[in-house]
Amino acid sequence: IIEDNNIQIMLSDEIFLYIFSYLSLKDLANIALVSKQFYRISIDDAIWKKLFNLHFPISRLYSFNLKEIEN
Hints:
59% of the residues lie in helices and 6% in strands. The protein is mainly alpha-helical. It has a two-stranded antiparallel sheet. Strand 1 (2-3) and strand 2 form a beta hairpin. Helix 1 (13-20) crosses helix 3 (36-42). It is globular.
């Protein structure tokens, strides 16, 4: 729908959530500035959980040497 040079995209939040889940951290921060709807979607826990797991994989969090801790 195009009205007065404004483009309103008629997609469900779930579709936007899926698309946003592939954005980088920088792109996600930028898309949040576009509209209230995009901001609301961009702060969804599912997106941030995926980004967290991407940047801090569980294997890296627990890949310490137990002998080093004991000393």
